[in-house]
TrEMBL record:
Residues 350-374 have a biased composition (Low complexity). One of its GO terms (molecular function) is ABC-type transporter activity. Residues 316-380 are annotated as: Disordered. GO terms for cellular component: membrane. Residues 26-153, 543-730 form the ABC-2 type transporter transmembrane domain. It comes from the Bacteria. Its main location: membrane. The keyword Transmembrane applies. This is ABC-2 type transporter transmembrane domain-containing protein. Keywords: Membrane, Transmembrane, Transmembrane helix. It is found in: Membrane. It is a multi-pass membrane protein.
Length: 749
């Protein structure tokens, strides 16, 4: 009988009666208990976190920031209630602590009383960190504690982000304010620079002006010194003038009494005399034109007489003759012995000089007579006496020469004419005023008295002026010293303003550059930037072939588990080796296939039932549905062949080995955590057992991805299947020989 028919006969046994049919149904549905129930129990636990009761304690008292009341704790509580994480139950601190202890609350979150104050301190002088207090109890549930770490990390990040947004918003507002103030400062610096340039120019002008002022003040100092000295002289002169005018006034006042009667008596005579003088001056002026000729004749005649006397003197006295008391041998004076340096006679003396000159010849003649013969008294002139006569003649000749030289000059005659004209005019005026001389004297006396009074006033004013100029000289000296110091200060000021102008220019440039570098954000830009600064690092978690929920992620682990358990249960009800085939002496291959095919068929049915429930019942979505079903058929064929071999080879002990092998596969397959996180023993087992490849292949079939892990798993499963069937055939061949161990087994189940 062929193996498929033997397998069919084996399955027909489960159609006879209710109990066998119930057993068959149990074999088909039992994998659902491991696969569907396990996955259903934690299909999407994170979607139901809002069912977990968590105590929320808000002790925050709020804080005042920039005059505004803020309560970060209240905001956080509202956000927590609006989230889908946990069943937040507000309570007291004591109740929260007790509830976590007795299990009413899985966790507690406490917002401390100073939370707002510490969060707000970020913009103050002493920033502090606001701490949220979380209390958990692993005795209630360890996984909840692990989940809470992720949840509270997000809560803390959200609270920190909000606080940071507020802080950075104030910073960016400050930036805008700083930008505006810096721009204003830059404009002010521009104005300052312009003002300093003007001030520098003014300082230069001030320096130059003070230099000029210093020169002027020096001159003023010298001038006031001269004025002070002159005022001293003026004071002395004015004092002398006052004394003189006083004497004049005293004299005039004394004489006026005597003069008035004389003038009153002789007014007519004075008038006549004045008119005579006027006529005489006009006559002289008229005869002045004849004066040069007369002066020339007089010069000639006096020179002749002087020369004659000189010769006479030389003839009589140079030959040893003596006369009178003269000494013999005394040389006669030459004509050059005259005194040419004698002063010229005044013009008014010119007529009389001319008269004297005209009489000079007579004088010379007389001298000659005296020298040569006795005079009246009968005595002869001596040489010294003659010498005096010669000298007188020489003086007369020289005087005549000077007079002639004077009158020969037309300018001198013009001056003399003007003087005579002036004299005539004044004489006429005197003649006209002669009848009024008494009145004029009275007027003159009054004027002299007024002059005396004014002279005394001038003297007193000169004294006051001298004193004031002394003070002015002292002030001018102080002014000169002060202006000198001001000049030095202006020089320093000019140099300082030069540096200040350079610095103010750099300041203005720096402020403009700084204003351009300081950002100025509007509200939209501030919101955008505060969001980035509050949460500067964003995790862009891109998932390749993402599993939509927790159950989908664990399905590759629980599905092979359920299929292994299904094969294990099936061989608890079915014989791994068909006894009829063994008794008939069939080949080992036919015996192995006859025992494997019924369970393999049941396994395929288990796959269909399990995947139907998972897909339509729980909502498992598979990236490659058909591939997944085909792969699971191969998986169940492999698992049933391995379980068959273990049961066939080791008998009742094989069931224990099947269970042990299941445990080893579950722990080394990497179905929950990556295998690298497991101890080294399981890392060694991982590539040696088929479930490791099944889990890896199902992940790529359900969630998607590369297919090479699937093909690799298929090859491994085929190898395990063929190997297990070959070993089962070998075992069946051996089972056809009865031994004492088979007749009396050491253990039976």
């Amino acid at each position: 009988m062929r193996s498929p028919r033997l397998a069919a006969l084996e399955l027909k046994r489960f159609g006879r009666g209710r109990l066998p049919r119930a057993a068959m149904a149990a074999m088909l549905l039992l994998p659902l208990l491991y696969g569907a129930l396990y996955l259903w129990s934690f299909w999407d636990p994170y979607d139901r976190l809002d069912k977990i009761p968590v105590a929320l304690v808000n002790d925050d008292k709020g804080a005042e920031v920039h005059g505004e009341k803020t309560a970060v704790g209240d905001t956080l509580v509202r956000n927590l209630h609006g989230s889908d994480t946990f069943d937040w139950r507000e309570t007291s601190a004591a109740d929260a602590r007790k509830g976590v202890e007795d299990g009413r609350y899985y966790l507690s979150l406490t917002i401390p009383s100073d939370f707002s104050e510490k969060v707000a301190s970020s913009s103050g002088d002493s920033p502090e960190t606001g701490a949220l207090k979380v209390r958990s109890n692993d005795a209630n549930n360890y996984i909840v504690g692990q989940i809470s770490r992720s949840v509270f990390s997000e809560v803390r990040a959200a609270a920190s982000s909000k606080a940071s947004r507020s802080f950075y918003d104030r910073i960016y507002v400050s930036f805008s304010t700083l930008h505006g103030r810096t721009a204003e400062a830059a404009k002010g610096a521009d104005k300052l620079d312009g003002g300093i340039d003007k001030a520098k120019k003014g300082a230069g002008e001030l320096k130059d002006g003070l230099g000029d002022a210093a020169d002027g003040s020096g001159k003023l100092k010298s001038g006031t010194a001269e004025l002070h000295s002159g005022a001293g002289s003026l004071t002395e002169g004015a004092s002398r003038v006052a004394g003189g005018t006083q004497k004049l006034a005293d004299t005039v006042n004394g004489v006026a009494g005597d003069v008035r009667p004389f003038l009153s008596t002789h007014e007519d005579e004075i008038g006549k005399t004045a008119r005579s003088i006027a006529r005489t001056s006009r006559t002289l002026k008229k005869n002045l034109d004849e004066l040069p000729g007369e002066a020339a004749r007089a010069e000639t005649e006096t020179r002749e007489r002087a020369d004659a006397l000189a010769r006479l003197y030389e003839a009589g006295c140079s030959k040893g003759h003596t006369g009178g008391t003269g000494s013999p041998g005394t040389p006669a004076p030459s004509p050059s012995g005259a005194q040419p340096d004698e002063p010229d006679p005044a013009p008014s003396q010119t007529p009389s000089a001319g008269t004297d000159a005209s009489s000079a010849p007579g004088t010379a003649t007389a001298a000659h007579a005296s020298a040569t013969g006795p005079g009246k008294d009968g005595a002869r002139l001596s040489c010294p006496q003659l010498k005096k006569v010669v000298d007188g003649a020489e003086d007369t000749a020289a005087l005549a020469h000077k007079v002639h030289g004077f009158v020969k000059n037309g300018e001198n005659l013009g001056t003399l004419k003007r003087d005579l004209t002036f004299l005539g005019t004044k004489a006429d005026a005197l003649a006209e005023r002669a009848p009024h001389l008494t009145e004029d004297v009275d007027s003159a006396v009054r004027k002299i008295n007024e002059l005396n009074k004014g002279a005394h006033a001038v003297s007193q004013g000169a004294s006051t002026l001298h004193s004031g100029l002394g003070t002015a000289h002292s002030g001018a000296a102080d002014l000169d010293t002060g202006i000198g110091q001001l000049g030095k200060g202006a020089g320093s000021l000019d140099g300082g303003l030069f540096k200040l102008a350079d610095g103010s220019g750099k300041l203005a440039t720096g402020l403009h550059d700084g204003a351009q570098q300081i950002p100025d954000y509007d509200k939209k830009e501030r919101d955008q930037r505060t969001g980035v600064m509050a949460d500067p690092v964003d995790l862009l978690s891109g998932k390749e072939h993402a599993a939509p929920n927790y159950g989908t992620g664990f399905a590759p682990y629980f599905i092979p588990l359920s299929l292994w358990v299904g094969a294990m249960i099936a061989y608890m009800l079915l014989q791994p080796l068909n006894k009829r085939a063994l008794a008939a002496g069939a080949s080992g291959r036919r015996i192995a296939l006859a025992g494997w095919l019924p369970v393999a068929a049941i396994g395929v049915a288990q796959v269909g039932a399990l995947m139907s429930v998972l897909h339509w019942g729980l909502g498992l979505e598979m990236a490659r549905g058909a591939g997944t079903l085909g792969f699971l058929v191969l998986v169940t064929l492999c698992f049933t062949s391995i379980v068959q071999f273990l049961n066939a080879r080791f008998g009742p002990a094989g069931r224990i080995l099947v269970l042990a092998l299941l445990m080893l596969q579950l722990t080394s397959a990497g179905g929950t955590y990556p295998i690298q996180t497991s101890p080294g023993f399981f890392n060694v087992l991982h590539p040696l057992l088929p479930m490791s490849y099944v889990v890896d292949g199902l992940r790529h079939l359900i969630t998607g991805g590369e297919l090479w892990p699937v093909w690799r798993a298929c090859l491994v499963l085929l190898a395990f299947t063929v190997g297990a069937l070959a070993l089962t055939a070998l075992t069946a061949r051996r089972k056809q020989v009865w031994t004492l161990d088979r007749l009396r087994p050491e253990i039976s189940l």
